[in-house]
């Protein structure tokens, strides 16, 4: 029915189809990997942009906040070693109350600026939570530094 050349052609066509089919699958898989990598890079860029925006927001009141921290550490430097756990409890409560005062003042005075952060996808709560976390990190670093200095003096 089929000649020798016809059989060779059908086999060759089958091999070509299999090769192109596997090549097509490889290209699709490669495209998905590239798209996922692009998506992941964009996600990372967006998170870094949000973190940068939180630092920018924190810059508006960092002087007051760190002045409160340094003031509290300065007041309690005399006996920080003896009453350190009690100092931490009072410090956290006072820091929380000062952050509430900062929240009220910033919200009252800088209301139009929140649109900038809102357009980046950050809510007011996320801004203040991020700024509070940064503030606590800086405060605990300063407390640790003061505690270590008191141990050596």
UniProtKB/TrEMBL annotation:
Membrane-spanning segments: 55-75, 87-106, 126-147
Please report the name of this protein according to its UniProt entry: Uncharacterized protein
- Assigned keywords, A-Z: Membrane, Transmembrane, Transmembrane helix
């Amino acid at each position: 029915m089929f000649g020798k050349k016809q059989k060779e052609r059908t086999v060759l066509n089958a091999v070509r189809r299999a090769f192109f089919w596997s090549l097509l699958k490889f290209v699709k898989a490669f495209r998905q990997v590239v798209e996922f990598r692009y998506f992941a890079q964009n996600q990372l860029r967006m998170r870094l942009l949000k973190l940068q925006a939180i630092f920018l927001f924190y810059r508006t009141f960092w002087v007051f906040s760190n002045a409160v921290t340094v003031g509290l550490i300065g007041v309690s430097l005399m006996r920080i070693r003896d009453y350190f756990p009690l100092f931490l409890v009072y410090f956290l409560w006072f820091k929380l109350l000062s952050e509430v005062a900062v929240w009220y003042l910033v919200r009252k005075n800088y209301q139009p600026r929140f649109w900038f952060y809102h357009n980046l996808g950050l809510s007011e709560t996320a801004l203040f939570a991020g700024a509070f976390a940064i503030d606590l990190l800086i405060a605990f670093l300063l407390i640790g530094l003061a505690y270590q200095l008191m141990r050596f003096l």
